[in-house]
Write a structure and sequence with these properties.
Blueprint lengths: L4 E6 L27 H8 L10 E5 L3 H7 L5 E5 L5 H11 L5 E6 L3 E2 L2 H16 L3 E6 L10 E9 L2 E8 L4 H10 L2 E11 H11 L1 H12 L2 E3 L2 E3 L2 H4 L7 H6 L5 E6 L3 E2 L4 H6 L9 E3 L2 E4 L5 E4 L4 E4 L4 E5 L4 E5 L6 H10 L7
Parallel strand pairs: 1-2, 1-4, 2-3, 3-11, 6-12, 14-16, 15-17, 16-18
Antiparallel strand pairs: 4-9, 5-13, 6-9, 7-8, 7-9, 8-12, 10-11, 18-19
Helix pairs in contact: 3-6, 3-7, 6-7
Length: 350
Amino acid sequence: MKEIIPVILSGGAGTRLWPLSRSKRPKQMLDLIGEGSMLGMTAERVADPALFAAPWVVAGTSQAETIEDAVPSLDRLILEPAARNTAPAIALAALAAARDDLLLILPSDQLIGDAAGFRETVARAAPFAREGWIVTFGMKPDRAETGYGYIERGPELGDGVHQAVRFVEKPDAATAGRYFGGGRHDWNGGIFLLSAGTYLDALEAHAPDIAGAARGAMAAARNEGRRTYPDPAAFARSPSISIDYAVMEKAEKVAVAPVSVGWSDVGSWEALMEVSPRDADGNALAGDVLALGARGCLIRSEGPLVAAIGVEDLIVVATGDAVLIVPKAQSQRVKDVVEALKDKGRGEWT
């Protein structure tokens, strides 16, 4: 059988990891845990020639050279002329593939501790994708988390793959507690396995404006080596919408494969702290940092010495032009700083 094509989506900016992540140096290009860029780690996760073809990446034009440096095995780079969210981005890749190609859609900025276990689950899910199912991978929750969307599992289709009953937006604390206790809901990690033809047919049925814009953009695309430049005018006609809203919540043959592989979307400084090594006082320290009596803190410097004395449960991040200080429990609010900087016309968010 043909190898699965990994399609890595690298369009996000990761504003919740400001000031380290910026619009011109997004989260997926950073080395957050000392093992290389998150984009490079994502590509390495699918570096199994028995199962996968060489990876494709869909990203903005400004990232082209950085991506080619980060992913030496890159086979194709589709450069979006404008950001239009995940559904149009995946459409570009599906149109570049053969209809019977299986595409593994991967965010570029996630961590998976058990890469072998993840690959094994993808292999088990592949027969269902070849039969026309859109398979998503449900991350087994280890807590009642309000920051993630959920997928409700239905009857088992076979080999650990279930029919997906419904997708649920980020719940309140009480609802998240019920989901966690009930055992039928998994986190929506945003990873999908589908055939190119199945996806394009689903778009035609449920989001024809996206399908039409993507077809026009690829029909008039310019190719330069492994780079593909879709037509800007045609692609600009596409709505900006996620695959969840455009397809997953509407398509009939949607399945979920639950996995427990040490997944994290590293969506906040607190989430990064959870996957980082910590000292005896529970601190995650990186860079030129001196911590005296500090407990339960993430302290990181990319420039000046940061000295922290007697503080607890703080996030402190220093770069050459900005310093962030926020209680660990409020680390999701960092994106509010980015919005405030934009409103004030300041450039530190870029």
